[in-house]
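Researcher: Sequence recovery benchmark, item below. Answer with residues only.
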């Protein structure tokens, strides 16, 4: 089964904070280990020592030197930023609360640390759950590898045995046929030898009688002339089988016919065998049911600004809406219908969601070489695209210009799940427990690009469609 390369996933590892230099090392500044919030300076292990021994300095607050202490000082008031403005989501000092941040909501750095710690613990728990899940999936894949190797070896051995038995059977039949031909040859030659002896004996007798008759015919003997009416010749009749034996050409013709039939059988059976072998693959986990399970296959997508209909404006590469200002021409641009494709080409399990407000929405997948300019370029009007169309309370699925009415009602958020290898495309109403709208199973032969289409009037307001962003 052909596979297409996929871009590597983004790294989940957070970058390490940069080293902070000691403010008191004159040469080859050493790495600072502590920062003083009173002195507003950072110290290496040697220069921080007075803060542990000098009574006045012992009252200062020391923290780990994870960032330059100057970054924690308000640039406007030159005071330590010990508050967080929740309104503007930034660190501030106490004097900031009475001028440009006046009336905003504040929390102390301590409170911010606590809430951040709680949030980080929650995220960490989610990461740990994901780690456990991935470890289980990895173990499943490792076991699947072992099963594939074992199954392949067993299948190869079984096939080798079957072909050996088939070859042995053919060779056995060949040997028996050769023995039968040799026996028939021996029998026919024996019959021919017997007939040849009889013919040679009669031929000798006939030649002797011919010589006798020649002598008598030249004689003037009165006795011979008197007996001429009694002279006769007796001939021995041979059965029709005395003719040449039939050749073995008919046997050759039968064997040739058998070979032709075997070739036909192999040619008819081989595609099925080959397809069965090609279908063997790693078993993926069962299809998801809950939204949480679908989100495991979430695929960030980007609208392609070379494919969008000229009067569809793209916003942040994920949202589209009508615009009076057209985009410039491009060979990839749809020119007949308000629709757009995504840049990403999908060849594996993928999930995405579309939010919309319009008269009609088309949620589609298409091959990259789908037509862009003809009347058949609308999603679903050709054999290179598949689409679910939502219009009011009407749903229908379309492929290759064949419409299929789908029961159910439209949802303002449509989830799409693609299982490329299994050839399954599913559409869902998005909720905690996903409600399937429609599913189609086929065979995809090229990478698929997600697509979105809209239908609207120029006077409609608030028309848009966008790829949902996972938060």
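Model:
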């Amino acid at each position: 089964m052909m596979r297409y390369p996929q871009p590597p996933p983004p790294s989940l590892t957070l970058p390490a904070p940069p080293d902070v230099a000691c403010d008191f090392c004159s040469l080859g500044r050493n790495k600072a280990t502590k920062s003083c919030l009173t002195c507003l300076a950072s110290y290496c292990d040697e220069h921080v020592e007075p803060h542990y021994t000098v009574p006045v300095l012992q009252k200062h607050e020391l923290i780990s030197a994870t960032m330059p202490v100057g970054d924690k000082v308000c640039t406007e008031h030159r005071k330590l930023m010990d508050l967080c403005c929740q309104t503007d989501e930034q660190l501030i000092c106490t004097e900031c609360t009475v001028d440009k941040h006046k009336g905003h909501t504040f929390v102390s750095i301590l409170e911010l640390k606590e809430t951040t710690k709680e949030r980080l613990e929650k995220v960490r728990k989610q990461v740990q759950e994901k780690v456990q899940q991935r470890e289980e999936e990895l173990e499943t894949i490792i076991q699947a590898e072992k099963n594939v190797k074992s199954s392949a070896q067993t299948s190869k051995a079984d096939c080798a045995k079957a072909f050996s038995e088939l070859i042995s059977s053919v060779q056995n039949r060949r040997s028996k046929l050769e023995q039968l031909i040799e026996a028939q040859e021996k029998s026919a030659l024996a019959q021919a030898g017997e007939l040849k002896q009889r013919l040679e004996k009669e031929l000798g007798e006939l030649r002797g009688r011919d010589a006798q008759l020649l002598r008598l015919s030249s004689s003037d003997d009165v006795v011979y002339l008197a007996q001429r009416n009694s002279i006769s010749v007796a001939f021995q009749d041979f059965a029709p089988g005395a003719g040449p034996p039939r050749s073995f050409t008919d046997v050759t013709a039968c064997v040739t016919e058998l070979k032709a039939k075997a070739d036909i059988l192999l040619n008819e059976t081989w595609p099925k065998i080959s397809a069965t072998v090609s279908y063997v693959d790693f078993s993926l986990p069962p299809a998801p049911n809950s939204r949480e399970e679908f989100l495991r296959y979430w695929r960030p997508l980007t609208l392609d600004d070379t494919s969008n209909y000229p009067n569809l404006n793209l916003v942040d590469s994920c949202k589209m809406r009508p615009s009076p200002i057209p985009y410039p021409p491009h060979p990839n641009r749809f020119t007949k219908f308000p629709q757009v494709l995504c840049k990403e080409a999908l060849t594996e399990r993928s999930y995405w969601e579309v939010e919309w407000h319009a008269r009609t929405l088309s949620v589609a997948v298409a091959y990259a070489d789908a037509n862009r300019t003809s009347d058949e370029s609308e999603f679903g009007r050709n054999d290179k695209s598949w689409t679910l169309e939502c219009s009011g309370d009407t749903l229908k699925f379309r492929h290759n210009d064949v419409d299929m009415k789908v029961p159910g009602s439209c949802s303002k958020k449509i989830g799409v799940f693609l299982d490329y290898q299994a050839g399954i495309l599913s559409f869902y109403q998005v909720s905690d427990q996903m409600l399937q709208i429609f599913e189609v199973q086929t065979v995809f032969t090229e990478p698929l690009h997600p697509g979105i289409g809209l239908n609207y009037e120029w006077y409609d307001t608030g028309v848009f469609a966008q790829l949902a962003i996972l938060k």
